[in-house]
Amino acid sequence: MREFLQLWKAHQEEMRMAALRDPLLNSETTKFMLQVGERTLYNYVAQGKLTCEKRGQANFYLESSVLALMRKSR
């Protein structure tokens, strides 16, 4: 359990630092940029193709991960 908490804290810190360096995009903007629906967006996160951060009840996506996915999709 301790190891899990340490890994979780490390992940949270990594996400916090990434957010400081990288702008966050809301779901609507991300869906528009990728030309996908809500379900596809969820699948991209589940597959690790997009980095998502939940703030309150809203999901935000790292701009760099959205742009990387756009480049791969070409």
TrEMBL record:
Keywords: DNA-binding
GO MF annotations, alphabetized: DNA binding
UniProt name for this protein: DNA-binding protein
The organism of origin for this protein: Pedobacter psychroterrae
Lineage start: Bacteria, Pseudomonadati, Bacteroidota, Sphingobacteriia, Sphingobacteriales
